[in-house]
Amino acid sequence: MTRGLFLTLEGLDGSGKTTQINRLAAWLKKRGHDVLVTRQPGGTATGDRIRALVLDSRSVGLAPMAEMALMFADRAQAIAEVIQPALAAGRIVLCDRFTDSTEAYQGGGRELGSKAVLELHRLICGNLQPDLTLLLLPDLDASLKRARRRNQRVAEEEGKDEGRFEAEKDAFYGRVWEKYREIAQREPARVVMIEGDLTIDEVQEQIVEAVAERLAVLTAGSQIGSTASS
Q1: Which of 88, 126, 152, 184 has its Cα between 20 and 30 A from that of 80?
Q2: Confidence (pTM)
């Protein structure tokens, strides 16, 4: 059985990732693909407990290294329980955030640096890399405003507090923003950056174009491999 495809969506909260991952899943399913949608932190019973701890604004005084360790504990569980089994079954995995988020938020925002993040990824995650990462980078101020409004609405409607990161100062998010751009520049073959204040449809159009291109390349590669082995 051919290994599945691992796609990740990245960006600041409020960048539209959730909307776009749902649209992409629907687009892929309509074309007959078997799709699994997951998120980080979360996506497993253990991960959801970690998510509640890390994102709750009452989790004050959490050391940056402890925060990063929790993110990788969540990721290790997700890889073992959800991502690897789905890829082994030939499914397309769409993941809302992966190690790029840790490099951006903890490496950049918390100023822990990229080296520590990438080394932990190698040790804990077996250096599992997405086949394609879609990085959404709309206007920084607009993203933060949307994220803070959403978290306030969720808190009021569901009683769920996930506003810990949105309480950070703008300087923190400036560092996150710059680290995301640094990642995209470092890995242009993997990361497709979608910038600017585009409409939802315009963003989806760019995402679909990038995913369709990657699927075509992988399909052509698998056909060549099948011909060579026959």
Answers
A1: 184
A2: 0.89
